[in-house]
Write a structure and sequence with these properties.
The complex is a heterodimer of chains A (273) and B (98). With 273 residues, chain A is mainly alpha-helical. Helices cover 70% and strands 5% of the residues of chain A. Chain A is built from ten helices and three strands. Chain A has helices at 4-21, 26-35, 40-64, 70-91, 96-115, 158-175, 180-190, 195-219, 225-244, 251-272, and strands at residues 134-135, 141-146, 149-154. Chain A starts with a helix and ends with a helix. With 98 residues, chain B is mainly α. Chain B has one domain (18-97). Chain B is 78% helix and 0% strand. The termini of chain B are far apart. Classes of the chains: A mainly alpha (273), B mainly alpha (98). Chains A and B meet through α3, α4, β1, α8 and α9 of A and α1, α2 and α3 of B.
Chain lengths: 273, 98
């Protein structure tokens, strides 16, 4: 098992890098723990703690900026949380080697998503210039301030979006990795939600998904409390540091570097099985 | 009832300031508990670590509950029911796991 100081440093580093790259820290933390010899069934709960801590650290500023669409997030969480709870219950009965393959597939998918390019679909509309950036009551629509002014948006393809969130929930429940790398692209590509809103809403929803799965793994007695404190501290510090230095570096370059790292980690995980 | 399909009556960004304050306070509490879980000896450290995990589970669920109550007060019944349904799913999961 990795020492506690090393675990704190690893959690800080992965949470910082994950925040900067937009993946979340656990997608790096859990595979590295497994490659360090930690059982996947033990690493997964630590990943969930990292997800929840990182999300909590980022939540106040994202909420204050008016970027989170709560109605959309909670609607999407219905399938994500149900799937995460079911997968977390099942994960206690899945062999470690199978969980490691799942983790490799997750790292590979996150890496490939990180290498993809996001296009700007929503544009500013002058007639909305007087509207503050917020979600609109009773709907899954809203507006935010983007390049050129206030940009209105409307959620489309809610059904396929719910299916994608269920997939993200299964990923979280089985592997302990936050499903943000599934949720954000799904909201962006399937539902036509602007990138900034999708990312902020995903940060909110991954905390709910992680909490749902944590309830189950806590009930199964799979949380090592001392290690959880180390990862929680690292996740909080890394999340805050990452969001503070976000403007000083090139996120696109870092995102590509992390994506390539994740693909390499996936290959090593498969070879190690 | 809120006007459906368009901007709300007063959708000011700062209207969720209570939730922002709650989240900031929760972040500080979680930080203190995490440090306590690491440096406190014996049972005190275990208690702090356990409370940290409870905080990380509880804060997002309190946020959902807060939104549920807010939408009930504002007559946004559809989304209040959705939030209530989400809390029910987590509660059933917790009861099943325990």
């Amino acid at each position: 098992m990795i020492s506690v100081p090393s675990l704190v440093l690893l959690a800080v580093a992965t949470a910082t890098a994950g925040t900067l790259g937009g993946f979340g820290g656990a997608v790096l933390l859990v595979p590295i723990l497994v490659l360090s010899g930690v059982e996947p069934s033990v690493a997964a709960p630590l990943g969930l703690v990292s997800v929840a801590a990182g999300s909590l650290a980022a939540a106040p500023s994202q909420l204050a900026n008016g970027l989170v669409h709560h109605r959309l997030g909670i609607t999407m969480e219905i399938t994500a949380s149900a799937a995460a709870i079911t997968a977390a219950m099942a994960s206690a009965h899945v062999p470690g080697a199978a969980l490691q393959v799942v983790l490799a597939l997750v790292a590979l998918a996150a890496g490939l998503v990180g290498l993809s390019h996001a296009e700007m679909r929503n544009v500013a509309m002058p007639e909305f210039s007087g509207e503050p950036p917020a979600e609109w009551p009773g709907t899954l629509d809203g507006a935010y301030v983007g390049p050129g002014g206030v940009i209105p948006y409307r959620a489309r393809h809610v059904g396929p979006g719910l299916v994608a969130m269920a997939v993200a929930g299964v990923v979280t429940g089985l592997s302990g990795v936050g499903g943000g790398f599934v949720k954000t692209p799904a909201m962006r590509e399937l539902m036509y939600i602007p990138m900034k809103v999708a990312a902020a809403t995903s940060t909110f929803t991954v905390a709910v998904t992680a909490a749902s799965a944590l309830v189950v793994v806590a009930g199964q007695g799979r949380i090592v409390v001392h290690d959880a404190a180390a990862v929680g501290l690292g996740g909080l510090v890394g999340g805050i540091v990452g969001s503070r230095i976000q403007d000083r570096i090139s996120p696109a370059r870092l995102r590509r570097a992390l994506a390539i790292t994740l693909i390499l980690v996936a290959v090593v995980l498969v070879v190690q099985v | 009832m809120p006007e459906v399909g368009g901007p709300g009556p007063h959708p000011l960004v700062g209207r969720q300031r209570h939730l922002v304050v709650f989240l900031r306070a929760s972040t500080i509490v979680a930080f203190v508990l995490a440090v306590g879980g690491l440096i406190l000896p014996g049972r005190a450290g275990t208690v702090a670590g356990t409370l940290l995990v409870a905080t990380l589970i509880g804060v997002p669920l309190v946020r959902v509950a807060w939104l549920c109550l807010r939408w009930i007060r504002r007559g946004d019944v559809r989304f209040a029911l959705t939030a209530g349904g989400l809390l029910a799913i987590v509660a059933v999961g917790a009861l099943t796991a325990l």
